[in-house]
Amino acid sequence: MSLKAFTCLLPLVTVIVGAIPLASGPTAAQSPEKFTLSSVDIAPGSKIDNKFVLNGFGCKGGNVSPALQWRNAPAGTKSFVLQVYDPDAPTGSGFWHWTVYNIPSSVTQLAQGVGNTPANLPAGAYGGVNDFHDTGAIGVNGNYGGPCPPVGDKPHHYVFTLYALAVEDIDAAAGILKTGTAGLHGFALNKGLGDKMLGKASFTALYGQ
Question: Is the dihedral of CA 144, 51, 104, 192 positive or negative?
């Protein structure tokens, strides 16, 4: 090829090369995966099986606490808190069914039934006050209490929520007693701890009679 012909082709070569994407640097870091809570025993939006329903107050369930598992806790998590709440209960303030505080950050699940026996909870964790306190319906205070809405009500919503905290002990950090109500702990979680509450994950299931 003559020098003149090559010179004529240069503009075309430049266009083609410019159209080819050049190798870039490392891609931008992907967003962290979502913090999630789930259960092999209860599907979100589904009816809760009788095995996990209260055995008392007219209900005849097994009252076994469901298995729970979680993934992708926020960076810096030092402990978890679990609360289970029915906002539809005809109390004016809903109904708290289960609370577990100071779950160590190394834990990623609660096996089925651990809410029925305090000794089976992860070391350092404890079952806090719920609205079955002193009723005798759940055995030891602080144990799991399953759904038992009034007969004839529309199915109630049961909200399972796991909080990730940047503190190891919610009570020490919030300046409240272990015997404080679930509502008081809820205030600490959603407001009082501020940025020490790193994130929360939840799912909702249903039950009606």
Answer: negative
